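Thread: Newbie trying to understand structure tokens

Hi all, I'm a second-year student working on a class project, and my supervisor (Dr. K.) asked me to get a predicted structure for one chain before our next meeting. I've only ever worked with sequences, so writing a 3D structure as a token string is new to me. If someone could post the tokens and maybe explain what I'm looking at, I'd be very grateful. Here's the chain:
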Amino acid sequence: MTAAYPRDSVLAVIGDGLGSLLVHATARYLGFDNRQITVFGPSVNPVGTYQQFAHNLGQTVLRSESESHFLAPDWPTFAQIDAWSRRSPAPLWRSTRRKYNPGVPEILTEATVVQKRMGWEESRVPLRVGWLQREMEPMPHFVLYDEDANFVGRSKHVMLAPGHGPLSFPPVLAKARTDPSLAERIVQAYEPKRYVPGGRYIVLGAGIASVNEWANILDVGGSALALTRNPQPETQDLNVPRCLFESLGIDAYVALPFEQRVRFLGEVLKGTRPDRRQWLERIERGQREGRFAAAVGDIAEIEAGAAGLHVRIDGKSTDIGWLDVTGIVAGTGFNKSVLTIPLLRRIVEFYDLPVDNGRLKLQTNCGVPGLDRPESRLCCMGLIANNVIPHGDTIAGLKFIARRFVSDVARAERLRRRSFPRRLSLQLSMGRDVARALRSVPTTEQLA
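---
Reply by user tm_fold:
Sure, no problem. This is what the structure looks like when written as tokens:
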């Protein structure tokens, strides 16, 4: 049952995705009850958007290690829960070598258990917040309104977790998509799609989304041309170097000036991808069969053609020229500008917040400058916070931000926290319930 509104709460999350579940689970673990927490969003499933993206990509495993999961503490890790559930030491052995990756079905199963056990739905108000107003009397807090400017509640502390901005397309592809005769053949990797046997496709990018699509095309008997603007990057397990997933690395990153952090992100976020045995086997087989090739260049023109699209490619070293292809897939991710998210754009414009090339200059605690106060937090999480937490849009990054935020709120509210024995009992029972649920889920094959 969803919460009634208008609703006043101690802390609120604007957004109903993975971040909301991690903030909610952490707050409940520390001792807040559901009456003190509000989650604003229309979705009945906090992992629904992620699940759809994973399905569209054909993704089967997470690229992160077993620490990335939805229980509030890191322990037990997902590998430990998996080993407990399957009665097998294999997940633990792989984890010691950093070769364990939770399966998507398994991690979604855990999320469902956490959602139900912690009562996430009991805290949810089923609407989108369109505006928030900072008020100082009788104490610092925020007043929240929906997209039609109706009052929906107040909260002393607010986490902005709006998710990603819109999908990103290079200008040539964005223009071609406005033509109805071309639009259905130009898709984003995160959009639904269907490949046909014998089809010929261009895949832009060389990150994990693009590599997934190479494999998906080859699997159905199609041909793929991997087109990148720069030589393909070296393989890398995670989307940023592993040291940036740990507190010492994050602290060193945060200590850099904002401009250096942004430059550094530009260097480490260039289409990195993990090394996957099965991907390599499929690609090598595709090369031998003449169904896979790679080139460095840009799409210059697109028009209707005999196979569907007639595409001119400007190569960086050699002239590729015109090709007839069935379709184009852009593995170019999401628009990272906060100005593409309506609520954030309104807040930026009204409060005159500092933005540099679409990035909000957050404080080192992910707080919104000028609005965030120790006694009344306003914090951001997700992709919009990766200039503070470089892996902020991963489960591990969302969890890191959620724990810091909830801990700050607990200190500000002088929360009487659950005792250690009660926290331990809760954690063990949660791990037990997840392990039981996993027994009905087929084991996902490890790819690393």
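A couple of things are worth pointing out once you decode it. The domain at 7-165+336-438 is CATH 3.50.50.60 (FAD/NAD(P)-binding domain). The longest helix spans residues 420-438. Feel free to ask follow-ups in this thread.
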